[in-house]
Amino acid sequence: MGEPDQTLSGQIDLDAAYREAKIDQLLDELNRDLVGLIPVKTRIREIAALLLIGRLRQQAGLDTGRPSLHMSFTGNPGTGKTTVALRMAKILHHLGYVRKGHLVVATRDDLVGQYVGHTAPKTKEILKKSMGGVLFIDEAYYLYRPENERDYGQEAIEMLLQAMENQRDDFVVILAGYRDRMDTFFQANPGFHSRVAHHLDFPDYSLDELMEIAELMVTQHRYSFDDHSRQAFLEYLEHRLGQPHFSNARSVRNALDRIKLRQANRLVRQGGSISLSELTRIDDADVRASRVFKGGNEQTGDGEGDEDD
């Protein structure tokens, strides 16, 4: 049978390796940044474990090549895809799979030109910026427009596919967008599907999770709900969830920005002297001034906004 492989002797302290990689610290940051998303966070933890074991195998002489790390994030706007991509870049960096760990966010406009000879330099520039880190392409399906014979998106796609294959040791691509559109995109571009190993679907937030997100944002910005304004915002969310163009945490943030605007104007109109606590307190009236309480339909036509004033 021959002599046993000496590289397989000895013990590996997995707990120490896990601590050294700071995986728990990075996952804790993700938990602090994002409410809910349990399936996504579970998958991120699983990917981190795979990468850690891969690194330990390499150190033990059992390297079988770099795993495919390109990913697809699907879900509605405001579900945390960009934030998770940022944390994934840090995890990849800590585990030695990318050199820098930075995140470059791009859309079709950053990659595709409007005339002959314009697309290649734009795409090359984005790829150059992404090397050593993660390239996050939001609404990636807009790269592919088969209905337009003179569209230059296919040139960007071919360059991306080549880089994802030939330079996969130096950067990771994350394609993101609505699930149904991404499914169609992958069917039309099998080269992408074959190179993407990890598909993560981001669920919409529940009402309770949206309220928790609002509480976190309010606290982070040094404001505070009282009992009445908290109940009013919960009712606001109940109304808003049934309207078009609701964008999860993004819509919560936009609504709170408008509430802060109303609070500021209320205080200035009020004039006189106020306590410091009044600078932070959100009033019931600041919330209920939204037109959703009057049966208004919040639409701006851009698919993401939710203007209500």
Task: Tell me what you see in this structure.
- The chain has helices spanning 14-20, 23-33, 38-59, 81-94, 108-111, 119-130, 153-166, 179-188, 190-195, 207-220, 227-241, 248-270, 276-280, 284-288; strands at residues 71-75, 103-106, 134-137, 172-177, 198-202, 224-225, 281-282.
- With 309 residues, the protein is α/β, with parallel strands linked by helices.
- The strands form 2 sheets. It has a 5-stranded parallel beta sheet, with helices on both faces. It has a two-stranded parallel sheet with strand order 6-7.
- The longest helix is centred in the C-terminal third of the chain and has 23 residues, at 248-270.
- Mean pLDDT is 87; it is low at 1-7 and 299-309.
Topology:
Blueprint: H1 14-20, H2 23-33, H3 38-59, E1 71-75, H4 81-94, E2 103-106, H5 108-111, H6 119-130, E3 134-137, H7 153-166, E4 172-177, H8 179-188, H9 190-195, E5 198-202, H10 207-220, E6 224-225, H11 227-241, H12 248-270, H13 276-280, E7 281-282, H14 284-288
Parallel strand pairs: 1-4, 1-5, 2-3, 3-4, 6-7
